[in-house]
Design the sequence.
């Protein structure tokens, strides 16, 4: 089984702080990391390989710095990794991104299973997984929390829904997006770290993946960001002070009025 | 690409300060852009001397006039129409009026019963129905193909869907197949002076808002966050047109099949649709302590939320987690008990209408987003508040 996992480099949410004065994001000293959901996708790929045999290839679309996360992926047990990077990709919305990733995956050879994180923590669209499946003409299941079995090219998985979960059977080749409950990602192994040290990560350009320039980057993106602005600030908060009785009294009033209507 | 007019640039650094991606820097008194630029336009908006511009390819738009009407995907599962569908019909009514077009609901189901009439009462002028056993359970293939085929046939200018598990799964596939734009999880929709749908959503973990348009492609597609738009008051006497459609059987075949559905039993788990959420964090100390949160939630007919710390401690299950790696809520009332206010949590709850925070640490960042704050001991305050609410209600 050949498994491809798509990963993205995002700013580490742990380090992100709101600037209390400007109410904007302070990115000073923010590290770039593997999108947290993608870690679970990667781990699931490695586990499936260990159980069913095969190989795991990790790909990322991004600036040259994104090689760092691919190298980390190698240290965590994946077999192969490559980057797709080109200035022509700048300004890609999810439609252009799925085109680019699909071209890269097709170019890399036949694939049985594509794994993605449910969404990336910087864009939060959750659109790339399903869109990529459409580009690859693969069936897919989003928000997978468990893979129960693979038998005769049919996979049985559990999909998170808003009100519970569905158990779904899906034919391979297929694409899954995963949520964090699916597994606990492993740390890099010593062997993996040694491999990562010498592994030269190839980088492919738009031409290398036979991409149609009209479908890339800004030009290939139907959505345009026309305005970016800070969210409306809340008015001044009021602190409730006084004796325990006074506080409890006021709070009970606020909660009942807000919950049941004044 | 980003165009920098080096004549006009005064090297003030506003672009550098405001860039969310560290992609533009002032070098030798002039702005210089690097490979991290995503062309988001923030710098262009902040530049006071108009030295920055985004150059767009002036490619041909499709024939926009051929696409007309506002559509809402009516989400129907387990015998219920999702509340967000009514909200979409609410905002859809306004959008349709502004555009001078009709508002339609699209219902894909096994059996429609009286649902079409409900949708008309909630604001739909037209209901397109596809009834087929293949649509009884949600499937990305069948739902995706059906909506795509209907969109190709009727050419709506806008398709809206709730930002729910179902729609966020299959709507991106429809947009990709139609080669059009899709904006996720919108919190505001309006028709601009240009006649396009202006779709506003939180970006970058909710720290900036972005308004997005889809000027050259149709339909303009968006998923919309539940609990944000206002539903119309249902009018059972309202008249509308019901159009029954059939989809080619081959298009309703699915390569993925639902084997069984498990509805999570017990307490109300659909956090994202709850009016009241009472959430607990590390400050509750133990599983026993967390029960205070559950008690208050039950008393206020609300849902139980939790910070990641509370979930990781095993006091409550992951479906209750609010925040970046959990659910996003936009409740009318959000009570944060013993939650410090890490940004990952705040992202998931800050669009709630009224936020009440109780924490023993006066410096807790949760107070920054709160409307009402109490500094104190939860174990003293919560039991007294619970008693007092009971008194008020009796």
Sequence:
């Amino acid at each position: 089984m050949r498994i491809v996992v798509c990963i993205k480099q995002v700013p580490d949410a742990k380090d992100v702080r709101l600037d209390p004065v400007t109410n904007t994001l302070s990115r000073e000293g923010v590290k770039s990391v593997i999108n947290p959901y993608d870690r679970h996708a990667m781990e699931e790929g490695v586990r499936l390989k260990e159980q069913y045999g095969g190989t795991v290839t990790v790909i990322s679309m991004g600036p040259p710095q994104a090689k760092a996360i691919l190298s980390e992926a190698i240290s965590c047990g994946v077999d192969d990794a490559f980057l797709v990077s080109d200035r022509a990709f700048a300004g890609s919305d999810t439609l252009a991104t799925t085109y680019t990733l699909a071209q890269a995956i097709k170019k890399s050879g036949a694939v049985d299973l594509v794994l993605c994180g449910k969404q990336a923590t910087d864009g939060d669209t959750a659109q790339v997984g399903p869109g990529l499946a459409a580009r690859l003409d693969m069936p897919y299941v989003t928000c997978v929390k468990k893979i129960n079995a693979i038998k005769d090219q049919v996979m049985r998985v559990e999909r998170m829904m808003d009100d519970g979960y569905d158990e779904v059977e899906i034919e391979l080749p297929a694409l899954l997006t995963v949520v964090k409950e699916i597994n606990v990602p492993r740390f890099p192994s010593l062997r993996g770290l040694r491999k990562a040290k010498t592994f030269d990560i190839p980088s492919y350009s738009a031409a290398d993946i036979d991409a149609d320039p009209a479908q890339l980057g800004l030009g290939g993106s139907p959505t345009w960001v026309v305005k970016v602005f800070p969210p409306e600030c809340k008015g001044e908060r009021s602190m409730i002070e006084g004796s325990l009785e006074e506080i409890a009294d006021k709070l009970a009033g606020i909660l009942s009025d807000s919950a049941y209507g004044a | 690409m980003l165009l920098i007019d080096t004549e006009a640039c005064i090297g003030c650094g506003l672009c550098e300060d405001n860039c969310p991606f560290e992609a533009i820097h002032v070098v030798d008194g002039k702005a210089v852009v690097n490979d991290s630029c995503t062309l988001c336009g923030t710098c262009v908006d902040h530049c006071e001397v108009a030295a920055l511009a985004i150059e767009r390819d002036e490619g041909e738009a499709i024939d926009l006039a051929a696409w007309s009407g506002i559509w809402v995907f009516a989400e129907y599962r387990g015998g219920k129409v999702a509340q967000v569908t009514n909200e979409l019909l609410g905002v859809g009514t306004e959008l349709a009026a502004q555009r001078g077009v009709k508002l339609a609901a699209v219902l894909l189901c096994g059996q429609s019963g009286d649902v079409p009439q409900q949708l008309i009462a909630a604001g739909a002028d037209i209901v397109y129905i596809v009834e087929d056993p293949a649509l009884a359970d949600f499937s990305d293939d069948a739902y995706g193909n059906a909506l795509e085929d209907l969109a190709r046939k009727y050419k709506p200018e806008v398709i809206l869907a709730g930002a729910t598990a179902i729609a966020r799964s299959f709507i991106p596939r429809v947009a990709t197949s139609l080669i059009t734009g899709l904006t996720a999880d919108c919190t505001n929709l309006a028709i601009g002076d240009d006649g396009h749908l202006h779709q506003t959503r939180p970006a970058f973990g909710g720290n900036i808002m972005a308004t997005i348009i889809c000027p050259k492609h149709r339909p303009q597609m968006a998923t919309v966050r539940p609990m944000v738009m206002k539903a119309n008051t249902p009018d059972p006497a309202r008249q509308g047109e019901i159009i029954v459609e059939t989809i080619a059987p081959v298009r309703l075949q699915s390569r993925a099949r639902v084997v069984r559905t498990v509805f999570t039993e017990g307490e109300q788990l659909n956090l994202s649709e709850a009016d009241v959420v009472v959430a607990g964090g590390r400050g509750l100390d133990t599983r026993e302590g967390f029960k205070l949160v559950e008690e208050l939630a039950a008393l206020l007919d609300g849902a139980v939320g939790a910070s990641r710390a509370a979930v990781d401690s095993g006091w409550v299950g992951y479906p209750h987690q609010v925040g970046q790696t959990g659910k996003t809520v936009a409740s009318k009332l959000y009570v944060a008990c013993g939650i410090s206010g890490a940004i990952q949590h705040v992202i998931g709850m800050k669009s709630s209408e009224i936020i009440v925070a109780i924490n023993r640490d006066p410096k807790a960042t949760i107070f920054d987003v709160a409307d009402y704050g109490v500094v104190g001991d939860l174990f003293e305050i919560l039991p007294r508040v619970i008693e007092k609410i009971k008194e008020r209600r009796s």
Summary: The first strand of chain A starts at residue 2 and ends at 6. Chain A touches chain B through 93 residues (CB under 8 Å).
